[in-house]
Specification:
This protein is 55% helix and 7% strand. The chain is α/β, with parallel strands linked by helices and 603 residues long. It has a seven-stranded parallel sheet, sandwiched between helices. The chain has a two-stranded antiparallel ribbon with strand order 8-9. Strand 3, helix 5 and strand 4 form a beta-alpha-beta unit. The chain is globular and about 105 Å long.
Length: 603
Amino acid sequence: MSPSPSTKKQAPNKSGQPREPLIPNGQLPAYLAEAFGELYAEDGLLVLGKGLGLLSLVASFVRFYGDIDEGHAAIVAEDTNEAHETKAAKVPLVFVLGLRENERKSLVAMLEMWGTPPELIPTMITNESGQGKDRALMYSRGGIFVITTRILIVDLLTNTADPKNIDGILVAHAEHVTEQSTEAFILRIFRTQKQLAAGNTQNMGFVKAFSDAPGAIMSGFAKVDKILKALHVRRLYLYPRFHASVADELESTPPNVDELHQELSPRMKDIQSAIAAAVQTCIRELKNSTSLLEWSDTDLSVENCVTANFDMAISRQLEHDWHRLRPTTKQLVQDLRTLRTLFQSLIQYDCVGFWKLLHAIKTMSAASRHPSMWLLTPAADMLFRKSKERIYTLSMPKPTEKVQSPVARLTPILEEHPKWRLVRQILTEIDEKHEKKIEKDEKVGPATVLIMVKDERTLDTVRTYLVEGKQRTMNMRWLRFLQQYNDRSRSVTNSSSGTSKLSEESRLLLEEESRARNVLFGAGKGKDRARRNPAVSGERKRKQLNAVPDYVKKKRRIAVERGRGEQTRQADDLERSAVLDEAIEEAKHDLDEVIKPESRRRA
């Protein structure tokens, strides 16, 4: 069996004591150590189940290839009977591709936690890493470099990085590698140049590829073969959760799980029923529009559309005859994909985010040559109506003797997401239990709670909700929606027609924006200024309504006299000039009113 970084026997150091393993015991699970040995023995693509520690495996390879005393270089020297030249051996040049920005930071943090010496920490190559000659100098020294494909392909084509000097390449997230990808181009150059330089020797360099997205690898026709061909490797290593070593590791310390089921709100249940009805309509139309689908009635069900990769399975069946399908059939497949997204977004987004998503779908459909027909169904009408009711409602009061013609009223609802409420309840229970423990034992330390979410969007939402509370979080999202929605309404009101061309709902939403802003940030700047300067506030209260100040009357008379002597100017120009001068003079007068009391106090 090939060595793993945590099981390989280390040579004694200068004091005669055995060296510490490259990775501390217990930091790398047994199944990852087994996967390391298999992938190290022969190049290939290793596919792990989601969440089984892909980054830990990549970090172990980085640590192993970077250490010339105890890692890969030492094993090569032992195999060639040149152990006495190990210290003088060249530092291997290895590139790591495919890591995202957050994964690069996690990789460095993981290696530091393992006690990796600073000189063995991989170098991050970014746009700020200097010119090509600076990178060429770094490459000549050897080491592990975490680099983007864009920079590496430029360095290979400009001979900044000589492919003959590269010892190997580690490719993370190999599910994105295709024949047309930059990664495939880099590996093709690397393999070709190494083959020309090596001749009949076995020094062809290595390529280790990693992936934790088995679903993406299985999608499409012969996707695995295409990825292996693009990677220039032959072996495929699979480590799903039901793999014997993985199952043994996970079952050795099973967690205590308390599963909580949160019901949807009544409006969310109605929305879910409306989406299911729209799915049934699309499925029925799809079955009538094409005979190329080999699906039974049980397969074409709403349950499969929600739980499985239903739209991808349909696209896979129609892939070879896609050019023969009518545009309406293609649009139905796209509609099923959209509806499946709505199923997931309903339980993931808040009420405002879901309403904005529906608006975007409706806008895109209206601009398309082949609009979505399900938007014209009664199910779509219920979907939009119930989604709106989660945010606000419009009501018309009954006419009375005093108010003969009442106006409509907008009432914000801003329904709280059920999962948010459940999270807050759980955290409250944990806090109460921890306080009881503190009362019994004063030595109990602070409680640590880890909340795992799906993506960055959910992370930002949960953080804001827990820090700022439900009311401010929803009001802030409500204000952002109003600002975006009212852009068109503001352009209409700025025209000569004013608010007469706005619908009743648009007018109410435009008025609601100022109320929402006042709820979040308080009154406007004018009120804040009056609060800071009571003298100005009292003077304004004593003024009569619609009273024109004397200095404004003076400026108007000056404008009239000036207009008599300039007959060539248009009346509109004169009016605009007068209004502008009046606004400037008013601003100066207000500034003087503020400065005079200050100067009197100083005097």
